[in-house]
């Protein structure tokens, strides 16, 4: 669990706070009902449906069969026919969606300081921090599986918010 947490956080740091802003993913985006996302995407869908639904969001890509980390990739340049995973992720601070750029700006930190900020007990005592992600596994140019999950920083670092 901690390795996954560290990998996801490293991914955020690599995307940086200075990149072109993407739409902030709302909480509803991460809901799956009967295998179908809130935007109507389900296993068996092809890249065109995926692009139509998620072109406004930052898309991260990793190769499934290699020791691969997620990297940001233009949605139109993703190699959908390869064995990959794509992911849309977002932070929620005190139940509100917030981008990495906003976190950096509001807390006056650089991208390299984001991990230290979000894992600090002083920050976590003041805020509830949850990282949600929607992951799509691709095979033969189609979505093979969709998963939605989250990492609760307050639980991971055993630091409850003090109200």
Give me the secondary-structure topology.
Blueprint lengths: L1 H14 L16 E2 L2 E2 L9 H8 L5 E4 L7 E2 L11 E10 L2 E3 L1 H8 L6 H6 L1 H6 L2 E11 L2 E11 H4 L7
Antiparallel strand pairs: 1-2, 3-4, 3-5, 5-6, 5-7, 7-8
Structure summary:
It contains 6 helices and 8 strands; from the N terminus they run H-E-E-H-E-E-E-E-H-H-H-E-E-H. By secondary structure, it is of the alpha+beta class.
What does this molecule look like?
The chain contains six helices and eight strands. The chain has one domain. It has 163 residues and is α+β, with helices and mostly antiparallel strands. Strands 3, 4, 5, 6, 7 and 8 form a six-stranded antiparallel beta sheet that branches.
Taking the sheet with the most strands, its summary is: 6 strands, antiparallel
The N- to C-terminal Cα distance equals 27 Å
Structural classification: alpha+beta
Low-confidence stretches: 14-19
Q: Sketch the topology as an H/E string, one letter per element.
A: HEEHEEEEHHHEEH
What fraction of the residues are assigned to beta strands by DSSP?
A: 25-35%
- How many domain regions? 1
Key descriptive features of the protein:
alpha+beta; single chain; two-stranded antiparallel ribbon; 8 strands; six-stranded antiparallel sheet; 163 residues; elongated
């Amino acid at each position: 669990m901690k390795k996954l947490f560290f990998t996801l956080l490293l991914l955020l740091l690599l995307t940086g706070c200075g990149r072109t802003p993407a739409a902030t993913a709302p909480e509803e985006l991460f809901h799956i009902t009967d295998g179908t996302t809130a935007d109507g995407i389900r296993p068996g869908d092809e890249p065109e449906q995926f692009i139509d639904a998620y072109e406004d969001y930052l898309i991260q890509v990793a190769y499934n069969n290699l020791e691969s980390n997620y990297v940001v990739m233009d949605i139109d340049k993703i190699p959908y026919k390869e064995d990959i995973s794509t992911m849309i992720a977002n932070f929620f601070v005190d139940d509100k969606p917030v981008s990495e750029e906003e976190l950096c700006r509001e807390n006056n930190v650089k991208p390299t300081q984001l991990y230290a900020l979000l894992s600090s007990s002083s920050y976590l005592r003041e805020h509830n921090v949850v990282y949600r992600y929607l992951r799509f596994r691709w095979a033969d140019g189609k979505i093979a599986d969709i998963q939605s999950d989250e990492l609760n920083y307050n639980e991971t670092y055993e630091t409850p918010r003090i109200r």
